[in-house]
Amino acid sequence: MDMLTPLLQQLGFGGLAGLCVGYFAKKAAKMTALLLGCLFVLLQVLAYYNIVSINWGGVSQAFDTAAETGVFENAMASLKRVLLHNVPFGAAFMGGVAVGAKKG
User: Fold this and answer.
1) What's the distance, CA 62 to chain centroid?
2) For residues 62 and 64, what is the distance between their CA atoms, to the nearest angstrom?
3) How far apart are the first and last CA of the chain?
4) What is the separation of C-alpha 9 from the centre of its chain, rounded to a whole number of angstroms?
């Protein structure tokens, strides 16, 4: 039993740390969506009153180019690599992230 204690501590800490990161990530994603939505509404109001002019074709093209080049996938892979760097409890951490994201 003495041999299992450090392993159980690492798994427990990894799961708890993952839960916190997952919860934070979901809350941060919700806040980002809220801010982007507010920005879109603000831009539309400014465009309605002819204060600004928005080239939506250019915006769409920029997102299409980013998606085709894999920018979003590379960013997610980099984030995962950073979060799991030097973490011996990676499986428990990722499980905790999944639970935290679901609960957040």
Assistant:
1) 21
2) 5
3) 35
4) 27
Q: How far apart are CA 39 and CA 42, in angstroms?
A: 5
Residues above pLDDT 70, as percent of the chain: 87
- CA-CA distance, 21 to 24, in Å (whole number)? 5
Helices marked H in the chain: 4-48, 56-69, 71-83, 90-103
Residue 39, pLDDT > 90, answer yes
pTM above 0.70, yes or no: no
Which tokens go with 91? 């499986």
**Alpha-carbon span 63 to 13, nearest angstrom:** 38
**pLDDT tens profile 7-26:** 666 667 888 888 898 999 99
Give the alpha-carbon dihedral of 44, 48, 51, 57, to 10 degrees: 60
